[in-house]
Amino acid sequence: MLKNIDLTREVPKAEYKRLKGDANLKLAALQRQSQALGIPIIVVFEGWSAAGKGTLINEMILPLDPRGFSVYSARGPTEEDAFYPFLWRFWKRTPTRGRLAIFDRSWNRRLVTDRVEGLIKGERLRQSFDDIRSFERQLGDEGVVIVKCFLHISKNEQKRRFDALRSSPATAWRVTEKDLRQHERYNEYLAAAEEMLTETDADYAPWTVVEAHDRRFATLKIFGTVIEALERGVAAVERKAEVSALSTVEPVSAGNMFKTSALDHVDLSKSLTPEEYAARLKKAQAELRELEHEIYLRRVPVVIAYEGWDAAGKGGNIRRVTQNLDPRGYEVVPVAAPNDIEKAHHYLWRFWAQMPKAGHITIFDRTWYGRVLVERVEGFCTEAQWRRAYREINGMEQHMAHFGAVILKFWLHIDPEEQLRRFREREGMPHKQWKITDEDWRNRQKIDQYREAVEEMLYRTSTPYAQWTIVESNCKRHARVKVLETVCKAIRKRIG
Amino acid sequence: MLKNIDLTREVPKAEYKRLKGDANLKLAALQRQSQALGIPIIVVFEGWSAAGKGTLINEMILPLDPRGFSVYSARGPTEEDAFYPFLWRFWKRTPTRGRLAIFDRSWNRRLVTDRVEGLIKGERLRQSFDDIRSFERQLGDEGVVIVKCFLHISKNEQKRRFDALRSSPATAWRVTEKDLRQHERYNEYLAAAEEMLTETDADYAPWTVVEAHDRRFATLKIFGTVIEALERGVAAVERKAEVSALSTVEPVSAGNMFKTSALDHVDLSKSLTPEEYAARLKKAQAELRELEHEIYLRRVPVVIAYEGWDAAGKGGNIRRVTQNLDPRGYEVVPVAAPNDIEKAHHYLWRFWAQMPKAGHITIFDRTWYGRVLVERVEGFCTEAQWRRAYREINGMEQHMAHFGAVILKFWLHIDPEEQLRRFREREGMPHKQWKITDEDWRNRQKIDQYREAVEEMLYRTSTPYAQWTIVESNCKRHARVKVLETVCKAIRKRIG
C-alpha cells in the first residue's frame, strides 16, 4: 500500500483555511452525534518518526469536546505493562460507548518497531498478527468505529527533518538514538510497515496512508478520513442495518479529494518510436520464450492479470505477450460477466478453477477485480461484499504465492481524451465497430466513480506478494514493451 | 473438544427406527427447501480410519434427492491436484446455490494427516490454518451452510475394528499400512485433531464431534446436526436477517438429545471421609503455598476460573484454595452483573483488565463465561453475539497462554436434587438466608436451557491451552481437594 504514492501533494494556505473551517464544524457535530448514539471510536496514529504525529493529533482534538476523548501515547510498554500480555494495556484503553480514544502509536508497534529491532520474530510474530486481527475484529463486531492512519514520509524528508531539529540546541534533544537507527534502517522499516498495512487491513478496520510531507494536506486528509468513517458509523447505527449497496456512490465529505492516488501522476506521455519498439519487443519476446521453458522445468506457476480502462488496449497487449510463446505452456482466459453457474457460486470460485497449474502461465483478460470495479460501481453486489472483497482477493493471491506462484497485475491506463479518440476511431472503422458498445459509452459517464474504485483497488490490493504495475498506455508501443519486460524481470527474479 | 467425551453412548434398535424415520423425512424436506431458497450446503466428514465414514455418508444420502448433491472423496491430492495450491481442488468443488456437497475427508486433512506425517510444518502449517479459516469464512459470508463432523473412536475401538477386518481375507485388504501407522501414532493424531478442532471452530463453520462407537447413535447425531444447521440456514434466509436472540431457546430438532455431553456421566457419588479430607487438604495447601512462591520467582501468571451451578459451593471452595496463601500473591475477583461503565465496553474488557500479572494468581468467582451462560439463556445478548463469543473467549485465553499463563477452569457440578436440598437448607438457616434469592429459584426453572448452554461451553472452550475440569461437588470435601490438587499439578507441570 506504500508503493506508487505521491508524497509531494500540497494544499495552498487559503484553500486550507476554508476547508479546515468546514472540517472542524463537521467533526465536532459528528462527535456529538456519536456521543448521543453511543458509538465508541478508535483513531490510531502510526508512522515514521518526525512525520508529525504530535502536531496532527493536536490539530484533530482542537475542535472536539474535551470531555469526550482521551489521547494515549504508547511509545513502549511501561515496567508495569511488561507484566502483562501485550494487548492487555490496549484493551484497558478501549473507549466506552460514545467516547473517542486516540492512540499515538499503538499495538501495531509490535509488528514494525519490535519486529525490525529483533524483539519479536518467527512463531511469536505470526501469533501477534493473529492476536491483533482478532482484537480489532472483536471490537468491530461490537460496533467500534476504527480508523487507522499511517503517516508516511520519504527517507530524504525524514533526514531533512532530523537535520533541522538537530541544528538548534533547543530541539536537538528531540532526535533520539533510536530515531537515527530507524532512519538508517529505513528500508527494513518500510518493508515491515508494508506487511503490517497489508496483513491488518480489513473492512472493519481499514488503513489510510497519509502523505505527510505537507502538514496542511495531512491534516485535511486525516479530518476527511475520520469524518467519513464517523458518517458511515452514524448511518449504520441509524439504519440499524448493513449499509446498503445504494449508498455506495453517495458523495462523501472532504475526504475524497485527499484520497491516496496512484493515477494522478502517471506520465502518459511516455512513448516509444517504432524502431525502438521493434527492437525491444523482439528481444523481450525471445527472452519470455526461454523463460516459459524455464518455469515449466521448475514448475513455477505464473499469473498475469490485466485490468484497465475500456479501449486501453488489453487485447493487443496480450497478443504481443503470447505471440512467441509455446501454446502448450500458457492459456488466455477472457473474463466476461459470470454465467448462471458461476453466479450460483462464490464470486472467486471460477477464478480458482482457472488458476495456472505449476509450470504454466495463465493470462487473465479482466479478472476477479470485477468485484471491486464494475460490481461495486454498478451496484451488482452490496457494499459489505465489495468492502470485504479486498481481503478475500488478497487471501487468494497470497495462497497462490505460498504455493510459489509469480503474480503480475497490470493496470492499463489511458486518459479520458485518449479513450474518446479511440471510441470515435472504432466507430469510424467498420471492422472495429463491434468493439464499441453502448455499455462503453455508459461506463464513460461514470468515470469518476470508476476512477475512485480503481484507486482504492490499487491501494488495498498492492501487496508484497502481488504488486500492481501501472502501465502508461496512451502509446500502445510503450505499453506492450513495458508489460513484456516487467513479466520477464519478475520471472527472472523468481527463478534466480 | 475431544476430552470428557463418552464414546460408549448407544441407541436401541426400536428407538432408532422411529427416530430415523422422522429424521429421513425432515432431512428430505429441508433439502427441498434449501434448493428452493438457493442455499448452498457443505457437509464435511473427518475422523479416524475405521470410524465408519463410508457407511454414515451412505446413510445420509439415502433420503436425499440424488439430483441435489455430490459426494467427493478426497483421500489425497491426485497427480493433477499436486500441480495446484492445496485449496484449489476444494474451491472447484464448492456447491452452487441450492446444492449439497459432501466431503469424505477434506481440506482439514492437511492439518492432521499431512502434519503428523511430517509433510507440512512450521510456517507452512500456520499458513494452512490461516488459509482454511479464510476459505471457510468467505463461504460463510456468502451464505453457505457449513457442517463439519469429526467421527471419533477410541484407540481400543480402532484396534478392535482393524482386527475384525483383518481376520477375514475378504476384508483384510481394507486395512492399509497407512491405517496401521495411524493406529500406532494414535496419540499424535489425537493431539493434532484437537488443535484442528479448536483452531478452526467458528460460528460460521462449527465442528461437531460424533461419538462413533455405535453406528445408530452416530447416524442420528449426524442427521440431527445437519437438520439443525439447515433449519437455521432456512430461517436466516427467510427472515433475511440475523437470527435474533429470541430464537435462542427454540426447541430444536432431534439434534439435541445427541449432543455431546460432558456432564451426563459425571460420577457425583465421589466423596471423601473427613479424615482423608483433612490430610489431603493440608498437604495440598502446603504445596500450593510453595508453588505460589515459585511462580512469583519465575513470573508465571496463573488464572483460576470458577463456574458452576448455584449453590455448588464456589465460595467455600475458593476459601480452601486461598486459606494458606500469601495474600500479596493472589487476588479473588468476584464477578457480578456488569456495571454501567463495564456495559459501555466490549464484554471482555473488564476481564482483560483483571487478568493476573506475571508471577501472580487471580481467582475468578464466576467469569467471562457469563456471556455464553446467563447472557445466552436470559437473552441479554443476541444469538450472533454468544455464538461468536466461543471464538473470542478462546482467543483471549490463547493470548494469555502465549504470554505463558497457566489457565485452570473449574465447573463445579451438582445434581438438581442436591441443589434443591441446599436451597432448602439455606432457607432454614437464618445466617444463610441471604445466599438464596428469588433469582436462584427462577434459574432452577430454566435448568434445561442452562444445562444445554453449559454443555456447549464445556465443548467449545476446552482447548489445548485452557482445559475445563469438571469437579464433582455433591461432596464438598471431594470438590475442594480435587480443585487444590488439580491446581498444584498444573503449576508443577508448567514450572517443570
Top keywords for this entry?
homodimer, 496 residues, alpha/beta, five-stranded parallel β-sheet, 19 helices, 10 strands, 12% strand
Structure description:
- Chain A has helices spanning 13-37, 53-61, 88-92, 113-116, 122-141, 155-166, 177-184, 186-199, 215-239, 274-298, 314-322, 340-343, 349-354, 374-377, 383-402, 416-428, 438-445, 447-460, 476-495, and strands spanning 41-47, 69-73, 100-104, 145-152, 207-211, 302-308, 330-334, 361-365, 406-413, 468-472.
- Chain A is α/β, with parallel strands linked by helices and 496 residues long.
- In chain A, the strands form two sheets. In chain A, strands 2-3-1-4-5 form a five-stranded parallel β-sheet, sandwiched between helices. In chain A, strands 7-8-6-9-10 form a five-stranded parallel β-sheet, sandwiched between helices.
- Chain A starts with 12 loop residues before the first helix and ends with a helix.
- Mean pLDDT of chain A is 90; it is low at 241-255.
- At the A-B interface, helix 3, helix 5, helix 13 and helix 15 of A face helix 3, helix 5, helix 14 and helix 16 of B.
